Amino acid sequence: MNQRIKELRDLLHTYGYEYYVLDKPSVSDQEYDRLMQELQDLEKEHPEDYDANSPTQRVGGKILEGFGKVRHVRQMYSLGNGYNYEDLQSFVKRVDASVGDTDFVLELKIDGLAMSLHYDNGIFVQAVTRGDGVVGEDVTENIRMIGSIPMQIPYKDTLEIRGEIYMPKASFEQVNAKRAKQNEELFANPRNAAAGTIRQLDTNVVYQRKLDGFWYQLAVDVEGVNSQSDSLEFLAHNGFKINPEYRICKNMDEIWSFIETNSEKRATLPYEIDGIVIKVNSLAKQNQLGYTVKTPKWAIAYKFPAEEVVTKLTDITLTV
Ligand code: NAD
């Protein structure tokens, strides 16, 4: 077995545990992504070292004790990543080659945690975290504490939707200021704070910390909903908060210009985003494209360059 593969798998298992289970990462996301990419490349070169338990094969997320476990009817996937123009261009080319010329929906990639909401007969009945993608945790009572999530909706058939729970920047600052006063350890960022909060056993704490959510996907078929943009409209119509910054793009020029505009807007938004998600608009084409073990082939996440790195580069430029 290739030694570096073994080393990377051990490291990534540890980092994944710190991040997903303890909500206390010890390395930056960029460092984690870089090591993951190195492992993916090495595993491609060494197919004989395949292991179903490799971090490359897992969505991430572990089930803790303390919350009931729920099996997702449809798996909750992660997203493949792209870091530059070329990565996105090859994604667009791959999609076009397999399903023909396509429209894409671009959405902000909210830096929170994925959540699934269930409604029966128009009533909110259950909320489940992504967990490992197959089985998640029942956090229904905590989700009830989030003011923007509707407890009743006009749509009466069984409904499951997916989206992102996040902590707005303003809540994050308040929570950390309070923790500093009480000499408690600070949360590293709003995402960790949101993940830590949703696993609280005391619903009062959740209520006080002011989480929010954006909803972007239907996990059931709904008549008349044939595209991602239809899904967003359906969600908005049923009283869910959708992110208004989405746009339909027809080609790479439009995709790249949306990314440039929103990279600049990022600092002014009241919530954290860590990239842009590009999705094939037509649901029929999404089905045709299908999934890998952990990601849909009909979407890709463009990840913004690390903020730390940008700061360092500016420092270097300033000192030169
Ligand atoms: P991800 O953050 O790369 O992207 C997938 C997730 O994006 C989805 O599951 C969904 O929750 C979210 N998302 C936000 N907006 C969305 C939208 N509009 N449409 C669809 N999805 C949207 O994947 P992940 O599996 O949640 O996390 C993996 C990432 O976590 C890694 O890339 C790494 O950056 C980080 N991580 C870091 C460490 C560390 O030690 N620092 C460890 C493990 C993972």
From TrEMBL:
Keywords: DNA damage, DNA repair, DNA replication, Ligase, Magnesium, Manganese, Metal-binding, NAD, Zinc. It comes from the Bacteria. It comes from Breznakia blatticola. The keyword Transcription regulation does not apply. One of its GO terms (cellular component) is cytosol. This is DNA ligase. One of its GO terms (molecular function) is DNA ligase (NAD+) activity. One of its GO terms (biological process) is DNA repair. NAD(+) binds at D29, Q30, E31, Y32, D33, S78, L79, E107, R130, E164, K279, K303. The active site is at K109 (n6-amp-lysine intermediate). DNA ligase that catalyzes the formation of phosphodiester linkages between 5'-phosphoryl and 3'-hydroxyl groups in double-stranded DNA using NAD as a coenzyme and as the energy source for the reaction. It is essential for DNA replication and repair of damaged DNA. Belongs to the NAD-dependent DNA ligase family. LigA subfamily.
